[in-house]
Design a protein that fits this description.
By secondary structure, this protein is an alpha+beta fold. It is built from eleven helices and six strands. It has helices at about 1-25, 120-135, 140-165, 170-180, 185-215, 220-230, 240-270, 275-305, 310-315, 320-325, 330-375, and strands at about 40-50, 60-65, 75-85, 85, 95-100, 110-115. The longest helix is centred in the C-terminal third of the chain and has 47 residues, at about 330-375.
Length: about 375
């Protein structure tokens, strides 16, 4: 009953945080309040049409049936334009589901925006969710709830807060704290939470001081410049965005390491007759050494994979390795991996130390109670 009560309270507090956080985050937010006149509409390609004579660009004309909006069921003529030799998306074919923009040309033709892929992603996520529940059972349900809260805290609270001009540093810390705490309340999760906090504090301190010795501007790509133009009167703090990207990017790996160590030491304490603090601390550090190399590789590979196209372009068009390693975009990617690894490195001893203090008392009382029952 105690566990159920704590579980219910955690869910309620998480929902309250999301509701209140979203309310405060959107205060002063001027984006997306009005529906855009160019909202996309779902459609299905019915048949291909001959290309229009005298078209400025090469294009594929087709007839499509609208599947959403006020004109649902109506058949319209649309065109997929190609700029030079670069096609905008995959060529449409009969039966494809696509997104169309309302016709703005003199002929009233609609324009191809993109292929409809979100429906496939939803099915993929549904299969993933069912697989998680089938394997993890109740723990799988908890995992999905935690994942849902994590996504909502990012997209419903954190992102609107940044776009509305709130302090990036404060909302980053608040979001990370919420994500960590929503893992639940027990001895194991308390050890995980405290271990995560230790690693995140170190990562945050290094990240916050990086600007002073790396002279970062935050203008890492053209998307950063677009952020500045969203609200010229009160532009987004791009240096703070780098801080946020580093901390949130490292959070997943830090939580993973802390939970691995806390779970392993919990099992060790439960199956050892007389566990000692020294034994658990040493075991946690040994486990952490095995995890450290793999998790550091995971971080580096994740960041390289996420920016592989840019890396290839830089290597192809810049023959100077010195210039490449001093490019701010590359520096930020390296910084994310290095600071994340620092967070993991310090999370290991923090979590091991906390577990050695929490688990020994619990195990000692349990074994003592077992001996008394035998007598």
């Amino acid at each position: 009953m105690k566990n159920k009560f704590v579980y219910l309270v955690t869910i309620i507090l998480a929902v309250l945080y999301l509701a209140a956080g979203h309310y405060f985050a959107v205060q002063g937010l001027s984006f997306f309040k009005e529906k855009s006149p160019t909202d996309v509409v779902e459609a299905r390609v019915v048949k291909l049409l001959p290309a229009a004579a005298g078209a400025k660009f090469e294009q594929i004309r087709f007839e499509a049936e609208l599947l959403s909006g006020r004109q649902e069921g109506v058949k319209v003529t649309a065109a997929q334009n190609k700029a030079g030799s670069f096609a905008v998306g995959r060529d449409v074919a009969v039966g494809d589901k696509v997104l169309l923009l309302p016709g703005q040309s003199s002929q009233g033709e609609w324009s191809y925006a993109e292929h409809l892929r979100s429906n496939v992603l939803m099915w993929l996520f549904a299969v993933f969710a069912l697989s998680i529940i089938a394997f993890g059972r109740m723990q799988g349900v908890n995992t999905l709830i935690s994942l849902l809260f994590c996504c909502l805290s990012i997209f419903a609270v954190f992102v609107p807060a940044i776009l509305s001009g709130k302090n990036v540093y404060c909302w980053t810390i608040l979001t990370c704290a919420f994500i960590v705490v929503t893992n639940g309340i027990s001895r194991k999760t308390v050890a995980t939470i405290l271990g995560c906090i230790g690693g995140l504090v170190i990562a945050a301190l290094i990240s916050a001081s990086a600007d002073s010795f790396l002279q970062l501007t935050g203008l890492v790509d053209e998307d950063s410049m677009y952020l500045l133009f969203l609200n010229p009167a009160d532009p987004v703090d791009l240096k703070a965005i780098i801080f946020s990207a580093i901390i949130i990017g490292a959070l997943g790996a830090i939580m993973d390491v802390a939970m691995d160590i806390a779970s392993a030491l919990n099992e060790l304490a439960a199956t050892t007759a007389e566990p000692t603090r020294k034994m658990l601390l040493q075991a946690g550090n040994n486990i952490g050494r095995d995890i450290l190399g793999m998790m550091s590789n995971t971080l580096i590979l994740a960041y390289i994979g996420g920016s592989l196209t840019i890396v290839l372009l830089f290597f192809a068009y810049n023959h100077s390795l010195l210039y490449l390693l001093n490019k701010e975009m590359v520096v930020v990617e390296i910084l994310q991996a290095v600071i994340g690894s620092f967070g993991i490195l310090f999370t290991i001893p923090f979590t091991s130390f906390i577990c050695s203090r929490l688990y020994v008392k619990k195990a000692g009382r349990r074994h003592k109670s077992g001996l008394e029952n035998k007598i």
